[in-house]
Amino acid sequence: MKKIMIINGPNLNLLGKREPEIYGSLTFQDYFETLKSKYPSIELSYYQSNVEGELINKLHEVGFSFDGVVLNAGAYTHTSIGIGDAIKGIETPVVEVHISNTFSREEFRHQSYISPNAKGVILGFGMQSYELAIQSF
Q1: How far apart, in Å, do the first and last CA atoms of the chain sit?
Q2: Where does substrate bind (predicted)?
Q3: S-S: 9 plus which of 41, 68, 73, 84, CB 3.0-4.6 Å?
């Protein structure tokens, strides 16, 4: 059975409440339950933190034993060299995801420190971005 970890970064714990015109009205926990039901042959795990170092620690923890990581680093995508380096240092492939199309937003969101070290990038498909990433493993 494949093991895939979904990691969400800062403010993604507010999905369902935060800017519903961009992120929708569904909580991630509700969506995660749907994913688990849809992919019973995959062992899906979920972790969320607003703290950069905790995200790096989780990548280190799963980065040698899981088959894949789906990472939405939120705003850290555009600022965290540390998270980019953590991805470079692990063996598990990471797919970067974003709910919104970051290129249709503020210019600072066009830069990613995750992308150069990721297996791929999926953005702009709403919550379905996570499912597309899961399908890539």
Answers
A1: 12
A2: 72, 78, 85, 99-100, 109
A3: 73
DSSP state of 43: E
Whether the predicted pLDDT of 76 surpasses 80: yes
| Of the candidates 68, 79, 41, the residue with the CA atom closest to the CA atom of residue 136 | 68
To the question of whether residue 22 is assigned a binding role by annotation, the answer is no
User: What pTM was estimated for this model as a whole?
Assistant: 0.92
Q: Look up 23 and say whether it is catalytic.
A: yes
Q: Which of 23, 31, 46, 76 is catalytic?
A: 23
CATH number of domain containing 17: 3.40.50.9100
Question: Does 117 show up as a binding residue in the annotation?
Answer: no
Structural domain boundaries, residue 73: 2-135
* C-alpha–C-alpha distance, residues 90 and 74, integer Å: 20
Is 8 annotated among the ligand-binding residues? no
pLDDT band at 109 (very low <50, low <70, confident <90, very high): low
* Ranges of H-type helices in 2-121: 20-23, 28-38, 52-62, 81-89
Instruction: Establish whether 105 is an annotated binding residue.
Output: no
Per the CB < 8 A criterion, the answer to whether 4 and 134 are in contact is: yes
